[in-house]
Amino acid sequence: HSSKKTYRKLATEMVTVSSTTSNFLALTPPVAIQVAPIGHWYIQHQILNNQHNTVVTHSESKVEKPIESGLLEGTGISKLLLDAADPIDLALLDPMAWKSQDHYKLLGLGQTRYRATMDEIKTAYRNKVIKHHPDKLNTKSVPQSSETELETNKELTLEEKHFQCIVKAHEILSNPVKRRAYDSTDPLFDDSIPESDEVVGQDFFQMFTPVFERNSHFSTIQPVPELGNKDTLYTQVQDFYQFWFGFSSWREFSYLDDEEFDPEKGESREEKRWLARQNKHGRAQLKKNEIQRIIKLVELAFTVDPRVQKAEEEEKQRKDEEKRLKLERQTKEQEERDRKKKEKEDLELREKEERAEMERLQLIEDKRQREERKLAFKKQRNEFKAACNKHNNFSTAPVDSASAEMTQNIIEIENLSQALSLEELSVLTKRISDEEQMEASKAIFEEFVCSMREKQEEDVKKSLLQTSGAQGKRKESSRNEDWSTEEMQLLVKALTLHPAGTMSRWDVIANYINKHSSSDVNKTGKQVISRVKNLQKTEGKESMKTDTQAYSSFEKSQGHKAQIYSEKTINYETANVGVSTPWTSGEQKLLEEGLRTFPTTDMDRWEKIANIIGTRDEKECKRRFKEIVANL
Description:
There is one protein chain. By secondary structure, the chain is an all-alpha fold. The protein contains 23 helices and no strands. About 65% of the residues lie in helices and about 0% in strands. Helix 13 runs parallel beside helix 15 and helix 22 (about 605-615) packs across helix 23.
């Protein structure tokens, strides 16, 4: 087909001829050019002729219908683009105020807007260029006669302003970055969301579905879950709200940057950076408001969503049912425990009563056996005495005489009846009764008497040995605690020189006494502790007073100035040392460990610490703690 330049040249020559006819007296002869009536550009050329009344004319009934049909089939443009139903007031268009203009409307996409594809934008722009390009308009040349007219001609016509606005709209919408900035602040986009007082008594899905559909356009993740209806599965409802609570929006507000803060207007690098920071701050604030708007929308929808309310009510009922079942189960378990406990207590009570009854019966039986044994002993003793009396109590003197032999034998008989057991006494009685001769029975009697005496002597020896051992220990203890007056004086002085809190105090005091004493017997720390405790517990104030006086006389004998200690002071010292035995390193470590383990809020703290140490009581632990604090 013929080239595009050929059609343009033909149209230009036609316009030039019609506009310059008045400047020539005669027209040049026309030139015949053959144009093939085929192709897309021929159809566009016919559209221009019909719209602007060019020299080429055709019948409307023969041209318009094929043109319209050709455009729809050849370009794929929707009927909306061809109709261009959006009216535009050309008097209000200003190319310098392009930010306030509706770019989609300028291209004839006012109804499609952000849903328009790049191909549709490109096709719509070409269609607008064909219609509104200054070279295609039927304009007349303005005579250039004066400077004033030249200045007036410099001003743009409404059609030229319109075309510049179309070019700017295409520049923005054909650039993905600029188009996203413009779509983020589309003046026709509805940012409104329902208020809490507006949703009362309204259909939830009818009110919120269009709102979520509008805002889903800004999601970085596509496709966006739909709100659904009352029959939607609750898992899908959860996915929907989970998506919107974490909604990620690509909406940004660089299109609304104030022209006063345009970085290109900065005269220096610092000023440009400051202007950029101002724009960044404004965008951040608008982004924050947008996030809060979306959050408010989602929270309100989640609150009033009947599906969520129904699920929450079912969840509450389920939890209440679980709680009720759990309470019933716990009640049954508690009743079972109480029943078993009662059965156990009843069993223990019965066993206790049975044991008590058995013990009572055993006591009765023991008492009966004791009584029987006692009666048996008594009977056996009487038989034994009768057998002895049968043989005149083994005496050669007359029966009614009170000889010494008779008396001694009666005493021995009584001793034997008391010393021998029932079995032994029975055997002895039988043997004496079986003998007819007194000499033989007397021999048996003397045999048992000798055996009894040997046994008694052996028991006495064992008792004496035990008694002597105890006496030896007491003697050794008394020897260890045998303190002379000089040693007592040195003890009192050492207690004053080395007060409570001194490291290894008792060993130090013992070394001091051994060093200054004239005795050859050395004292140990344990002996010092024992002596001080005895002074505190047994001797009391009088003993300490005597020791104080002895110490005073000692100082006088040594030629030093005597220092008299009051009874109260001495008792205080002994009271402190009486319970302050030296602390070993192991005890000290256990004390520190107990202090770290048990806090001060524990009421039984010192008792537990004392139990850990084992060799100290509560008072000693407290006193040691105070000594440590005082030395810090």
